[in-house]
Amino acid sequence: MKALAAALLALTAMASGTAIAAPADSSFGHYQPKQVYDGIHSASLYVPMRDGVQLAVRIDRPTRNGKVVEGRFPVIWHHTLSISQLTADGAGGRVSGFRQMQELVRYGYVVVQVARRGNGQSTGVRRGYHDRNEAQDAFDMTGWLAKQDWSDGKVGVYGCSNTGDAAMHVMTMRPPALKAVFAGCFSWNKYDAFRRGGIFAQWGTGPTRTVEDDMKVSPVDGDEKKVILREAAEEHQLSTPLFDMWKQLPYRDSWSSLVASRFWAEGSASSYADQIRLGAVPLYIQGGWRDELRDQAFIAHRNVPGSRVLIGPWAHCNSDDFALLEEMHRFYDRYLKGIDTGIDAQAPIHYFTVNAPKGSAWRATTDWPLKTTKMTPLYFTTGKLATAPVRSKPVNFKARYDIACPDAGSGSQVQPCHVAGSGVSMAGAPVAADTEVTGNALADLWVSSDQNDANIFAYLEDVAPDGTVRVVTEGRLKASLRKEGQAPWSMPPGVPWHRAYEEDAQPLKASEPTHLRFDMMPTSWVFQKGHRMQITLTGSDHRERARDMQTPPTITVFADADHPSQVAVPVVPAGAR
């Protein structure tokens, strides 16, 4: 079937006059075909939607010798927050392939920016965040783009963060012209991504802008006096305050009066998994080991057959020195132009292992979790970790709401941090040799609280010989939402899932040991010889917002024969790779 599909793509490419030969050295992260056009022409306009809302659209087309090239090209578009010119620099000066997409125009693409309703230059009101209004807009816009006289009818979509979610929602609508999607750092399920473990400790509540903020963006061509832009900016003020909506939704089945919806379900790609699978559109997923949505990449991959994953040592939507644009170009050339770029012959998952020996950090696999991993328990004892259960006394600590992490970053780039004394930390013996941990660690804890609930945060950390502590990965769970269930979608083997409906809440009984199981987000990390693995448990995190427990609880962690607390880490045995 793959051979037949490749042949059909090749025939399509030949019929459109597109060269089908890929560069001889096309490989993962390396794709440098010859540039065909020498310039880019940008123009913008408004496109009316079915309800009168006008979406702002910026169209970038190839030029040669200063003139727009007439002809039909594949279209790649971005359902974004503003059509204003993007630069090659991401947050903090970091370069991201997502911000360089315009460069593909020079290789025979039309690249289009579309501001979502209620955002940027577009009119309308943002009801929610990735609601069905936006999804229908995406269906209509994909069809409109396919029919333009500069389009060959084949359309791709890209996006990262909120626009990665938007790209996934295009897939839920199955527009006939959609042929390829590249999405990064998105949520498969919004509750699990943005209320992870039932705790509000995530940055993703979307933009909040004033009229003055919206008036600073560049207007659409023909609106140089910003008449329509001002109308749009004033209309945007009627949009749903996303922070307020998030606060209304403590449970997975919570109802928001602001949007008259159980919005975690409405806004989640997971709710439309069957439609995504029926569409059978090739999907390439990008993530980062320092991004708080990294687990969503692997869950989406499990539920979208044929999808691919690329994950590196990056924060949210960054790609640092990896040639992400080249990999995106390689993907789109395969599915929008029918060029055999070699991508189909490679394993579907590429991941970076932090601290791996030089030249071996990038690995490829067809399986996730890796078949070679061995779940290795680290048992809690008094003040340290052990490889076997040891009867120990309970450890008490009080949650601290005064924790600050000044070097942790902000917004989507914010990171967890280790603060001595913020909870309880237990380290193991120094590892005798480099030890790789790849996959999801699993926390299996017995705790109690002096209140009827507690937020439990668990961190896997790397302690260097000089005492420096680095957070490797993390997990969290609100103790009252500990009840486990069967997820409506495929989850990695052994990873607990909590339905977290309101009826599932089970308040704690003061000082009574309670069993909790939850995962830490996936990672791939080598603990170098002489370093120690450490587990830190806290009752708070500096990223928490709108805490529902005003008085910090005192938490007890048990580690006796009847209540053996542990964290199992996915170790790749030496020589098993």
How would you characterize the overall build of this protein?
The chain is built from 11 helices and 24 strands. It has helices spanning 2-15, 132-146, 162-173, 190-194, 211-214, 227-236, 242-247, 263-266, 273-279, 294-303, 324-336, and strands spanning 39-48, 54-64, 67-68, 73-80, 110-115, 151-160, 178-184, 283-288, 308-312, 349-352, 362-365, 374-380, 385-386, 395-398, 423-427, 435-439, 442-449, 455-463, 469-478, 514-519, 523-527, 532-538, 554-557, 566-572. The longest helix is centred in the first third of the chain and has 15 residues, at 132-146. The two termini are 30 Å apart. α2 (132-146) crosses α3 (162-173) and α3 crosses α9. Residues 1-19 and 87-95 have low confidence and may be disordered. Strands 1, 2, 3, 4, 5, 6, 7, 8, 9, 10 and 11 form an 11-stranded mixed sheet that branches. Strands 12, 13, 14, 16, 17, 20, 21, 23 and 24 form a 9-stranded antiparallel sheet that branches. With 577 residues, the chain is of the alpha+beta class. 17% of the residues lie in helices and 26% in strands.
List keywords for this structure.
577 residues, alpha+beta, eleven-stranded mixed β-sheet
DSSP helix fraction:
10-25%
Radius of gyration: 25 Å
Give the tally of β-strands: 24
In what range is the share of β-strand residues?
25-35%
* Silhouette: globular
Summing up helix and strand content along with how strands pair, one would put the structural category as alpha+beta
Mean pLDDT: 93
**How many strands, what sense, and barrel or not for the largest sheet?**
11 strands, mixed
Between the first and last Cα atoms, what is the distance in angstroms?
30 Å
Number of helices: 11
